[in-house]
Amino acid sequence: MAAVEQWETEARRLGQRPLDEVDPEVAEAIGLERVRQAEKLGLIASENLVSRAVLEAEGTVLTNKYAEGLPGGRYYGGCQYVDQIEELARTRLCALYGAEHANVQPHSGAQANMAVYMALLHPGDTVLSMDLAHGGHLTHGSAVNFSGQLYRFVHYGVNRETERIDLDEVRAVAERERPALIVAGASSYPRTIDFAGLAEVARAVNALFMVDMAHIAGLVAAGVHPSPVPHADVVTTTTHKTLRGPRGGVILCRAAHAKAIDKAVFPGIQGGPLMHVIAAKAVCFREAAEPAFGAYQRQIVANARALAGTLAARGFRLVSGGTDNHLFIVDLRSQGISGRQAERALDEAGIVVNKQLIPFDPLPPMRTSGIRVGTPGVSSRGMGEAEMTEIGNIMADVLGAVGRERGGARSGTEGTTQRVRALTARFPVRA
Ligand code: DSN
User: Fold this and answer.
1) Which tens digits make up the pLDDT trace of 263-289?
2) pLDDT at res. 9
3) From ligand 1's centre to the CA of 403, what distance in Å?
4) How many CB atoms lie within 10 A of CB 165?
5) Is the CB of residue 261 less than 8 Å from the CB of residue 251?
6) Atom 3 in ligand 1: which residue has the minimum CA distance?
7) Is the CB of 111 inside a 6 Å radius of any atom of ligand 1?
8) Given the DSSP bridges, would you call strands 351-352 and 181-184 parallel, antiparallel or unpaired?
9) How far is the CA of 12 from the centre of ligand 1 (A)?
10) Torsion sign over Cα 343, 361, 243, 265
11) 188-231 pLDDT, tens digit each
12) Judging by beta carbons within 10 Å of its beta carbon (0-12, 13-18, 19+), is residue 22 exposed, middle or buried?
């Protein structure tokens, strides 16, 4: 500790100046973003608010260190402390999910997925995944993404009636297409995913099985959603969604795939790992193992149900009729407004969501017929079901006003902004 204090004194003596002196423009934008996060209600399902400890670990001198390789086998000297940190991160992650092997170096979820494809597939191989237009993900084979360009992706979607994944439909496509790999996981799917059932389909067609659990990683860690780890050859996730860590990705896999996965991450697709981010990941995994994290994840789900229930009671149709997890999708067609209009109007009132394609959406992705709403962020602020009812009513009021006055000037958002402010003032962002 003495060494740390000495370093700080020395830095001041050498004239190291703080950010707002060195770069007032960047400092100001950061300050404004801080205020935006504090004063608005963030309901983007893939975002969260990290703890002070996670923020602190990420903003450290670890950013100065190169450490290509793995703990104990690096291509640079001076890695003794980053080795400790990466080992902590790997061990904690394996313990959290009961996994045989972990790689904590992927810079993002996209890179985690890229590394898995590189480890398990040859270019041109067939892969079966969920359609992006039904709630899948860009890196699950979209034509505009590397995944769709390097591999032959085919897709399953949701059933038109139930708006849920139908295992019989997945099995039929799998039997027809004989994929080398089946990918499960979604970025906009409000229901529990049957990983055991999908693994059985993969086994029946002799395919490997990968799960991208990015959205639900926190729920899985807390046992609030069934875990894919016992069923999948490889599991990827980001660390910044429900898991509430720094922005980044990780890969879990069976021991049999460990070597190939590690090699695919480095030197396959990445150079030096971001050790400051890996330190923050380690802190996140420690926090996720605490009992309070389980209570937090249960609250996320209870809040999503309460918010969805309020909107349903106010006449909004929800895709698949509701939610089992941290998010839900509102179909706005009966209100006669698009997702883009809704996103804009809600933001003006202080509520941040994203426009979202609904399954079989007649509108294009830049307009959409729906919005996706998630509760990880507001739950991190300590809000509960009573606050969700209030937020749902504010949203319904704002969207109702847009519907009534579409094409003309909106009204009624001034009062709603005050109602949002009343909530954000009572539940401040803690870090
Ligand atoms: N873009 C993320 C989301 O919002 O779900 C997924 O990577």
Assistant:
1) 999 999 999 999 999 999 999 999 999
2) 81
3) 27
4) 24
5) yes
6) 46
7) no
8) unpaired
9) 40
10) negative
11) 999 999 999 999 999 999 999 999 999 999 999 999 999 999 99
12) exposed
Residues 6+ apart with CB under 8 A from 232: 184, 195, 199, 209, 210, 211
Active site residue 212: yes
Out of 238, 239, 323, 368, the active site residue is 238
Closest atom of ligand 1 to CA, residue 44: 4
For atom 1 of ligand 1, which residue has the closest CA?
46
Distance CA 252, CA 258 (A): 9
What tokens were used for 278?
Answer: 């890996």
Strand order in the sheet with 327-331: 317-318, 327-331, 370-374, 354-356
Is 139 close to ligand 1, i.e. is its CB under 6 Å away?
Answer: no
Clarify whether 259 is annotated catalytic: no
Q: Nearest C-alpha to atom 4 of ligand 1 is from which residue? A: 46
Name the one residue in this structure whose structure tokens are 């404004």. 32
- Taking each helix axis as running N to C, give the angle between helix 291-313 and helix 385-404, from 0 to 180 degrees, rounded to the nearest 10: 30
pLDDT value, residue 405: 76
Of the residues 58, 86, 177, 212, only one is catalytic, namely: 212
Q: Is the distance from the beta carbon of residue 142 to the nearest atom of ligand 1 less than 6 Å?
A: no
Radius of gyration (Cα) for the chain, nearest Å? 22
| 103 Rama sector, left if φ>0, alpha if ψ -120 to 50, beta otherwise | beta
Cβ-contact 154, 127 below 8 angstroms: yes
Average pLDDT over every residue of 370-376: 98
Give yes or no: 247 in active site.
Answer: yes
pLDDT band at 167 (very low <50, low <70, confident <90, very high): very high
Say how far apart CA 53 and CA 363 lie, in whole Å.
42
Question: Does residue 192 carry a catalytic annotation?
Answer: no
